User: What shape does this take?
Amino acid sequence: MKIKKAVIPVAGKGTRFLPATKEIPKEMIPILNIPMISIVVEEAVKAGITEIIFVNSRGKESIENYFDRNLSLESFLKEADKNDQELLIKNIGTKVEVLSVRQKEQLGLGHAINCARPLIGDEPFAVLLGDDIMDGEVPGIKQLMDKHEELDCSGVIGLFEVPKDETSKYGIIEGDIKSEGLYKLKSMVEKPLPDDAPSNLAVPGRYVFSSEIFEYLDKIPRGVGGEYQLTDAIKLMAEEKDVFGAVLEGTRFDTGSMEGYLEATIAYAARDEKLKKVILDSVKKYT
Ligand code: G1P
Assistant: This one.
């Protein structure tokens, strides 16, 4: 079955970006002039997703509004003969169907995904986490959607290699290699200390699941940090069903951290010759 729906959890408080996130959703903070959430949605749309399901919380309405039409702004731009900008704004509001569901309590990523269940039904679906920007020729999530179709399995999890001392920041898999970059999952553990990590293959916030994942999300107890962890549901599912991990091609920016956010900003800016010159001149001048 072709995957048409993607779940993007956006209910978090974005505490690492306070004070900006006191009044602005973290996801609306831009890389240059594009809100981070727009880059993630664009990845999904390029992959063929037609329906985005935001799992959100109070105070995050501006995310949905961003993907809605803004007719008064459109007509203002039209009257001002700013046709390129008018088209840009119109495209944002028409490119994808957006639905949302509230996560009424912040009980973890597993809980957030389970909140989307009524809007998913029996279909397979994609999950993209907004703190990870995947950049490359083929959208990260598309690579997983293709593998899911090819392998006809219960789930495919994106992977990337991390240095051993960084395992405690991620979900880490234990798997058997099937072919280059493809692993059959045996187990998975959330944020293990380096000595307890079963591998250095980490999950960068891109997943594809069949609706079977909901059965496992219902079974898990609270895990690391007292939260319902998606990782624990994947672990249970991998014990009974076929779940694969695929190493993603492309660059990952961890925009959940200030360092990764800065790196992404520089990488995006450097694509424009004028901005690239500003970066290089500024580095000389201010560092
Ligand atoms: C979440 C997941 C983790 C994954 C990470 C990717 O953790 O629980 O398995 O590796 O996203 O960014 P978080 O960073 O939300 O704590």
Notes: The first helix runs from residue 36 to 46. The pocket of 1-O-phosphono-alpha-D-glucopyranose is lined by residues 109, 129, 131-132, 170-171, 190, 202-205, 230-231, 256 (CB under 6 Å). The chain has a mean pLDDT of 96.
